[in-house]
Amino acid sequence: MGNADAQQITRESKSNLALAFVSLGAEQRRDITTFYAFCRLVDDIADSPELSIAQKAERLTGWRRALSAEQSGEPPLADPVRQVVAKYRLTPEMLEEIIAGVEMDLSISRYATFEDLRLYCYRVASAVGLVSIEIFGYRNPQCRDYAIALGLALQTTNIIRDVGKDLRVDRVYLPQEELEQFGYSEADLFAHTHDDRFVALMEHQAQRSHAFYTKAAALLPREDRRAMVAAEIMAAVYRDLLRRIQRDRFRVFEKEYRLNRLQKALHVGAQLLRCR
Questions:
Q1: Using an 8 Å Cβ cutoff, are 242 and 28 in contact?
Q2: DSSP string, 205-219
Q3: What does the pLDDT average to over 254-266?
Q4: Who contacts 156 (Cβ-Cβ below 8 Å, separation ≥6)?
Q5: Where residue 78 falls among pLDDT bands split at 50, 70, 90?
Q6: E strands within 153-250?
Q7: Are 89 and 206 found together in one domain?
Q8: Among the three residues 58, 91, 107, which one is the final residue of a domain in this structure?
């Protein structure tokens, strides 16, 4: 599997992240596409309905080994990923953190508190951001804190958007402590009970996400704004999505929220103009 295959994985994912890549030069775009294809593949392993838990664990372990050295029967994308790791002086551990995140889905389907959930969000989103900024290039070390905060913002937005979808595979990412806090039970959740309790619970989630977006914006160093334009496109698209879900009172049981191509393109244009 070469870069063409990585590009195909990215296109087929229909991800907002893929949209943000248009802001990058050809070489960076190729390398971030390879990295993103890795992220998609390991996530797809963890989510696969065809594989057993043991098979998923075995394939993820294979990926972990392939990050450090060539392995017999390794995934075709492994060598391009190792080239990206070497080129940007990344460590295999940086990508292993992402694997550890998707592995959590093999054994954990509930989180008692947000602090428990934060580790999951860090691994599957902030760790992706920390690798991405190495490919984008930055000057101020504070950019790492920016990447961590933005990752938490994006992943908590994903959790809000995907409540209904996650229920279908018996996953509840809303912290159990917060369900109890708002007097809303897991039985209510599976019954798709959309009432004032649910809206209050979800508004609490949304406000936390907004706080992470605000924190990320404050942490982005001025001298790295141009380099982080792809990340800022992501922030703009996902924050707009979050606001739309809020305005619609969180109809996440019955709707799948997405921005259309024009709405996304407007965010791309706005961020490109800001960074000129």
A1: no
A2: HHHHHHHHHHHHHHH
A3: 76
A4: 121, 205, 208, 209, 212
A5: very high
A6: none
A7: no
A8: 107
